[in-house]
Amino acid sequence: QKLRKEAQIKFEEMASDMAKENLKIYAGSTYRSYTYQKGLYDRYVKKDGFAAAETYSARSGYSEHQLGLAVDIVNDKWDYLSENDKEYDYLVKNSYKYGFILRYPKDKIDITKVSNEEWHYRYVGKDIAKEMKNTGECLEEYINRVL
């Protein structure tokens, strides 16, 4: 799995700190090439239709995974993280300390236009993540406010 260096370091630090509390997370999906993302998106469109796929998958060229800053987190059973997992609670409360945000929270679907992805975290850096945690903003709200 590949992430940009700073994101990788902070993810490993976060996972290590969680392991000290008997919580285990792993990077299930990180960087994706344009070709890989295109194939993934095309499969979703074929399976569920264009309108549905648009709510949970990004077209190639628009996926955060192509930036090397996004990580889909899995638990110790290698299942995508869900809000029923104790690791999820830790991340919601603490991921900002490492520069990560829950990218598509369920209470922001009307703003992000993407369905809730409890497992998808995005590295934005510690300062921005802390500010977003304090304001309760999603990334779209933060960007609209600061630009």
Written description of the protein model:
This protein is α+β, with helices and mostly antiparallel strands. The mean pLDDT is 96. A four-stranded antiparallel sheet has the order 1-2-4-3. The radius of gyration is 15 Å and the shape is globular. The chain has seven helices and four strands, in the order H-E-H-H-E-H-E-H-E-H-H. 44% of the residues lie in helices and 14% in strands. It starts with a helix and ends with a helix.
Rg, alpha carbons: 15 Å
Taking the sheet with the most strands, its summary is:
4 strands, antiparallel
N-to-C terminal Cα separation, in Å? 32 Å
Shape type:
globular
Keywords:
147 residues, alpha+beta, 4-stranded antiparallel beta sheet, 7 helices, globular
Describe the protein's topology.
Blueprint: H1 5-19, E1 26-29, H2 34-48, H3 50-53, E2 70-74, H4 86-94, E3 100-104, H5 109-112, E4 117-123, H6 126-135, H7 139-146
Antiparallel strand pairs: 1-2, 2-4, 3-4
Please give a quick description of this structure.
The chain has 147 residues and is of the alpha+beta class.
